[in-house]
Specification:
The longest helix is centred in the first third of the chain and has 46 residues, at 16-61. The chain contains 19 helices and two strands. It has helices at 5-11, 16-61, 63-76, 92-109, 122-139, 147-169, 173-203, 206-214, 248-262, 275-292, 295-311, 316-329, 334-344, 349-367, 390-419, 421-425, 431-447, 460-493, 496-511; strands spanning 229-230, 239-240. The chain has two domains: 2-109, no CATH class; 122-511, no CATH class. The chain is mostly helical. A two-stranded antiparallel sheet has the order 1-2.
């Protein structure tokens, strides 16, 4: 109930005028929004807008609902924006994140949250944010600021700040589980939609899919035949699944992280999702990832699952080996295999262009090594910002100092992981979730060698997803260490026999690794 205390305090204030004023303001807002939507867009869009407004008010009452809104938009409508212009076009994700931060701010202001939590990652993340702001200001020396640039950079900062919000609002195991479950379910919905659209376009009618996806044009999505994506954008080559993510690699990055999070649930004593539902869901997620033909995301997921199988869940090796054999021998997977082989041989145009981007990126970084060139553009006509590698992209924009700051975050993150792995083993209920969240970040970091979505002004939702999972993994570590500490205190309170049992438990936990 603590997430709802601020609402209760406003409407039940001892000063009656406060509650009355809040009620009047709410009624005026609803009436104005209703009139505008009906007059501007008609009854259908107006009704949808009212439903969205009602959900938005629900988000303001409960921080978990706000989390659901953010996750649902990231997975299902990542590029959706309002069909209005207020100097800029606000996106659905902007509004959802704004609601989430507003709820947290009001919790702090009304005393519903009394203390702020610091973590070992807090300072490195804050330093990285400050360096990004410095690079942004420095870059304005050779480029003018535009509303587009200012808005998108603010969105990046908002996504980075999401880390602090998560570790301060996800404080108990049940909330952690509910938020992660929402992420898995929403990603499954996106994958199921992607599979459905792919099957219809491939085997029935691509015009039907084009019309369906083009209907999202009013929400800022692209329209026309280009909504169907193919290898090298050539309709003669195999089609790639996109769902509502526009780009197959964007969808692949979402599936990469979520699969890495969900797979360890196969070994959980108490699963987020029941096994009879979890196994087919994992199958749908994996199949959709394969149909994206996103090589970077598949390699990232492979690295994450290999790490989990090697360090903790050894039975996962059987699943990985079976999947590898099927991938190599099934006729339906030969397109993906050929796509990988062409990449390794540097034979396909996409790989050759990627290597060209790397070369150009090194030239730009060599000219502006320390603070980069900012986010507005390159000061030199023969260079540009943009490379399919998140680390080189950070170095271009924030310089080698900024890249070093980001790598410090990564090192601290995995240092905390390594130090707490034995502690996590003493909490079998949360351990698989803890491993999955860290594996999700590992998959994203490995996939980032080949893609750039997790620090890119044009992919706000991917940046949001990355820092959301970083925050959830950090919160999971804190929750587990606190629970184990409480168990230790209880054991010592029971006397020497309890302490001796705990020591045996520690040895047993360590033996798993």
């Amino acid at each position: 109930m603590e997430s709802q205390d601020w609402v209760y305090r406003i409407f039940t204030s001892r000063h009656r005028w406060v509650g009355a004023l809040a009620a009047v303001a709410l009624c005026v807002m609803l009436a104005a929004a209703t009139g505008f939507l009906l007059a501007e867009f008609g009854p259908l869009v107006g009704a949808a807008g009212l439903l969205a407004l009602g959900f938005g008010l629900w988000m303001l009452r409960d921080v978990e609902v706000a989390y659901w809104g953010v996750i649902g938009i990231v997975c299902l409508l990542p590029f959706a924006s309002l069909p209005i212009d207020i100097g800029f076009t606000p996106t659905f994700l902007d509004l959802a994140l704004g609601a989430l931060f507003l709820v947290w701010t009001l919790q702090i202001a009304t005393g519903a949250q009394h203390n702020l939590i610091g973590t070992p990652l807090g300072l490195p993340v804050a330093v990285f944010m400050l360096l990004s702001v410095g690079a942004f200001i420095f870059g304005l020396a050779h480029a003018s600021v535009t509303p587009y640039l200012l808005r998108h950079f603010a969105e990046i900062l908002l996504s980075l700040a999401l880390f602090f919000l998560v570790v301060n609002t996800v404080r108990d195991a049940r909330r952690l589980e509910r938020v992660v479950r929402a992420l898995v379910l929403c990603t499954f919905a996106a994958a199921l939609l992607g599979l459905g659209l792919y099957i219809v376009a491939r085997y029935y009618s691509d015009d039907l899919v084009i019309r369906g996806l083009s209907a999202l044009g009013r929400l800022g999505y692209p329209a026309g035949p280009g909504v169907l994506r193919y290898i090298r954008d050539d309709p003669e080559l195999p089609m790639r699944a996109t769902s509502t993510s526009v780009d197959p690699n964007v969808l692949g990055s979402l599936l990469n992280m979520t699969l890495a999070i969900a797979v360890p649930q196969l070994f959980a004593p108490r699963r987020l999702i029941r096994r009879r539902y979890l196994i087919p869901m994992l199958g749908v997620l994996a199949l959709c990832l394969g149909l994206t033909l996103s090589r970077g995301s598949i390699v990232g997921l492979g690295a994450a699952l290999i790490a989990i199988a090697t360090l903790r869940y050894h039975k996962l090796w059987v699943l990985l080996l079976v999947a590898s054999v099927l991938l190599l021998i099934l006729p339906q997977t030969q397109t993906l295999v050929a796509h990988f082989v062409a990449g390794f041989r540097i034979e396909d145009l996409a790989t050759q262009m990627r290597f060209g981007e790397y070369k150009d990126a090194f030239i730009l970084i060599g000219r502006y090594p320390w603070l980069g060139v900012g986010f507005a553009g390159s000061p030199d006509i023969d260079t540009y910002i943009g490379v399919s590698n998140v680390y080189l992209l950070i170095a271009e924009q924030v310089g080698l100092i900024g890249l070093a700051s980001f790598l410090v975050i990564v090192v601290v993150f995995f240092t905390q992981f390594w130090r707490n792995r034995r502690v996590a083993a003493r909490d079998p209920e949360l351990e698989p979730l803890w491993w999955g969240l860290h594996a999700g970040i590992l998959g994203a970091l490995v996939g980032g060698i080949f893609d750039h979505y997790f620090f890119n002004l044009d992919f706000h939702h991917s940046v949001t997803l990355f820092w959301l999972v970083v925050g959830l993994a950090t919160a999971a570590t804190r929750i587990i260490t606190r629970r184990v500490s409480q168990q230790r205190d209880n054991s010592f309170a029971d006397g020497p026999q309890g302490a001796w049992s705990l020591e045996k438990g520690e040895d047993a936990a360590g033996s798993y690794l």
